[in-house]
Specification:
Blueprint (H helix, E strand, L loop, with lengths): L14 H14 L23 H15 L2 H14 L4 H13 L3 H11 L6 H17 L3 H12 L6 H14 L3 H14 L5 H13 L3 H14 L4 H14 L2 H17 L16
Helix pairs in contact: 1-5, 2-3, 3-4, 4-5, 5-6, 6-7, 6-8, 7-8, 8-9, 9-10, 10-11, 11-12, 12-13
Length: about 280
């Protein structure tokens, strides 16, 4: 679950405009843009042959094991061309781009996937992820359009819809309404994920409710002790509350976690779905 609040973009936003929006958003929240690199969806292996799917699967397995994302992307792209109605390859491709925080490319892949004849439940899962990425990129109108499609589905999770609505309302500048919408979702959940509580803490911060924000963030930190975002937010809250020793402690934890992330994360086995 992503939780940023960039500026909205028109529903007809092109990939190029989303790239511009993405860079602007990341600059606003203090995230570097050095993750842009040259490999892309256009990097597809050579001509189609009868053996190509087998070769691409082998390439994908080797690339994932080695953490070689450019080769991983090329192999997954090739497999989506060979077997466009197999959701496995679309998820694999979104996972590869997502591993590099390439949200623009993830949106592009999901939009392409939804043009194909995929199982309906897979399409709904893809739309959920598409909504999250569009909100991250600030394209509120496109996100709302996708949400309207999801809301009409008979088997959609109402709790997840409430969270989407809350994030959209926050993006559009309505934190109070967003908090009320989110609480509807939290009240309906049997088990509340810490990311949802962290979103509530952001809304409390938007409204100036520092005590409530601190309470939620402490709860999240107990569950996600190595989450850099949570410790960064706690440092900020304690600074605003005038509790400087605690602010410094969480700032130190945040920096330690961030420094430790220079090592590549472990890779999933080939064929596993990306985060949904």
């Amino acid at each position: 679950m992503t939780e940023t609040d960039p500026d909205p973009r028109p529903a007809g936003t092109t990939v190029a405009r989303r790239i511009t929006a993405g860079i602007a958003v990341l600059a606003i929240v203090g995230v570097g843009v050095g993750w842009w690199f040259t490999a892309g969806p256009q990097d597809v292996p050579g001509p189609t042959t009868s053996h190509r799917p087998v070769q691409l699967r082998e390439l994908l397995t080797d690339a994932r094991a080695a953490g070689d994302i450019p080769r991983w992307i090329r192999a997954a792209e090739g497999l989506t061309e060979e077997e466009p109605e197999n959701p496995r390859w679309w998820w694999t491709l979104t996972e590869a781009w997502g591993a590099e925080s390439r949200d623009v490319e993830v949106v592009y892949v999901l939009e392409r996937a939804l043009e194909h004849k995929l199982p309906e439940q897979e399409k709904i899962l893809m739309r959920h992820q598409l909504i999250e990425r569009l909100i991250l990129l600030g394209d509120a109108q496109a996100a709302r359009r996708e949400l309207e499609i999801v809301e009409r589905h008979p088997r959609v999770s109402p709790e997840r819809v409430h969270v989407h609505r809350a994030r959209l309302l926050r993006l559009e500048g309505y934190p109070r309404e967003a908090l009320a919408e989110l609480q509807l979702g939290l009240d309906a959940m049997r088990s509340i994920p810490p990311e949802a509580i962290r979103l509530r803490s952001r809304l409390h911060l938007d409204l100036g409710n520092l005590v409530e924000a601190e309470r939620d963030l402490v709860r999240v930190a107990r569950q996600l002790s190595n989450d850099e975002v949570t410790h960064f937010m706690l440092s900020d809250v304690y600074h605003k509350l005038g509790r400087q020793p605690e602010a410094k402690r969480h700032r130190r934890i945040y920096l330690e976690i961030k420094a430790g992330q220079s090592a590549p994360p472990p890779r999933r086995r080939a064929g596993e779905h990306g985060s949904r």
